[in-house]
Amino acid sequence: MCVANLKAVPMKSVAVVACMDVRLDPMEIFGLDLGEAHIMRNAGGVVTDDMLRSLAISQRKMDTKEIWLLHHTDCGMSGLDNDAFLAELEKEDGARPTWHPRGFNDVEQDVRDSYQKLVEDPHVDARRVRGFIFDVHTGKLHEIGLAGRDAHGHPAEKVLD
Ligand SMILES: [Zn+2]
Q: How far is the centre of ligand 1, averaged over its atoms, from the C-alpha of 19 (Å)?
């Protein structure tokens, strides 16, 4: 579709929060086309304050209804020693960053932690969140169950409302 004919509002009402890893193509993985979803990326695909800001704008001003979290195997953030990295930056740059690196040890747990951050934020509607892990070696996408959702993203008996 020609960009000139697209509206800024995502046609599939989806906002994807994904890792910036070069092996990850969120549009291709989810079979999305231009104009269909917001794609928000950072190191790890973690839910930071700026992700919350973007999601609040995506939901309130661009009418997105669903959030898809996309993490992956062999992530550079997996196993990153947060304290050591902070100390390294402080030593080399003479200042400690105001942000946290958000390295993690368990990719599936980090999807759940990211989901929890969405649930706890008063400005984000977290009633429709799906969590995925992409295997960079097999190219397969694995959906994990989050609270209120089964492993296929369908509402479980009790959905958070
Ligand atoms: Zn990654």
A: 5
Contacts of 119 (CB under 8 A, 6+ apart): 126, 147, 160
Secondary structure tally for the chain: helices H, strands E? 4, 5
User: pLDDT by residue (tens digit) across 122-156?
Assistant: 999 999 999 999 999 999 999 998 875 555 555 54
Higher pLDDT, 154 or 117: 117
Q: Which tokens is 31 given?
A: 């079979």
Q: How many CB atoms lie within 10 A of CB 56?
A: 15
Distance 91 CA to ligand 1 centre (A): 25
Q: How far away, in angstroms, is 43 Cα from ligand 1 center? A: 6
Can you give the pTM of this predicted structure?
Answer: 0.89
Domain boundaries, the chain: 13-75+121-144
| 20 Cα–ligand 1 center, Å | 6
3-state class percentages of the chain: helix first, strand second, coil last, to nearest 5? 30, 20, 50
Q: How far is the CA of 46 from the centre of ligand 1 (A)?
A: 9
d(CA 139, CA 149): 24
CATH topology of domain 13-75+121-144: Beta-carbonic Anhydrase; Chain A (3.40.1050)
